[in-house]
Amino acid sequence: MSEDRRKNHLVVLIHGLWGSAQNLSRLESVLHHSLDETPNCKLHTYAPDCFSHFKTYDGIESIGGYIIPNLFKHLEKLQAEHGIVIEEISFVGYSLGGLIARYIIGELFEVGFFEKIKPGFFTTFATPHLGVTFYNSRILNVCGSHFLGQTGRDLFLVENVKGIVYKLCDPDRRYYRGLNLFKTKICVANAKFDRTVGFYSAFITKYDVFNDWNSVNPKYIKDLPTATLIENGKQIQCMVIDFNESERIDPAEKRQDPSQSSPSQSKFAMTVLLTVGFMLFPVIFSVSLFATIKSYLRRRILPKPDFAKLWKATSAYFELVGDEGDEEQSSLLSTSESQNFLKDSDKKQDDDDGYNEADNLQQRPIGVSHITRAVVENGLNMIDEDVDADVEQTISKKSPTDTSKLYSIDVDFELDYKSRSGSVKELVNNLINNDLSDVALTKNLDPLPFNDVRQRILDNLNSLSWTKIAVLLHNLNAHQSVVGRRGFERTPESIPFLFLYSFLIDTSMKQSSE
Asked: Is the pTM of this model over 0.90?
């Protein structure tokens, strides 16, 4: 058998508020299904599980402090147990995880991490890059900033320019400079049905272009992948907004969606929601308050790790195990530096990093934090009456040159596409990667009333080069569907889009290896 000379590429997947590593298991599976055979690199994935559930209340900096030492240990484990030396690293952040990933990248940049391990790609799914605010609800802003621990203070920009969300975008700080090393930076935003993270914040723009859906004539990029569910034959189109073709309708000619739920249906849904919310609110409030207090005490007690010292020890370990028994170099390692090292480097080494899809996709019992998230997210998504509207999907007929592949991830489905390169070309050629100020959808549309801090965050982030994607997923809770968080069996809407994303990453890897 010929030796596998592909570079080892680690993708770190970071979940969001109230979540766990399981939230990104479907995205992780798609990446492996799509990229395991790529000739450009050997893919490895790592989803940290050290900050799940109510630990996500601890704030962006504290959570980053949990992840970075575990990331170093994981790199050592890959080397010691599997003989895998990571040469390139990428980050995927979902929701809050995108901000955490940006913090981690900055700290790694500061200690010289990227001098040894090459930066790959960076992606966020529904991440509040501009923070969170509810422009029509002061109550939600107060609750969010006071009852989500330090994370709430971070997301709602309570500390203004002294807060971490502003620091992450400051061009003079390590976070901006570290992020700038990643040539491929992708941000994915839900065009509709996501009221947990506003479109404007995830897309990094000052325009909430889809707030009034009936005033928009949306068009979608053509010739993107389509998924067909084997069990019932349902076809799912990959619906990425084409900003070049979409237009805003004159207010006098506002379209009415004939499939939109009737007022009586909406009132009934709201009544059910309010009844359930009234019953659960005292419990959720008490649990969240307790979690906030516990988070505050935890942050006070736990010391911040010395990232520079930890990285020095980890990088020295790599040099040691790669030196094939140089006793003189081995003596350079002090006890304190080597205490985190995995000593069993003489174990059987192979090219398997322990990834197991069956374990990865196994459902776990939900806890109180998951119930909290479900109530909050589904509640926010039920506020507007248009959530039950049936979004028209245009299904393109298959051509003789289409590629069809069968997959089984929770459900059996067939993915149809012309070619990977063809799909990516159609996507990239029709994207708008600026702040949307020069597209027809923002014509006569007032920008959101940003304060000075949020405007500076916007301007600084848009000074970087982004690939911006607005996707439409017809689901009650698009915030969870955008990464298939509840599984493809329950929310198959994300299947074709996530595979399209994997094709985009494959293309990025090819370009970076040239």
From this structure: no
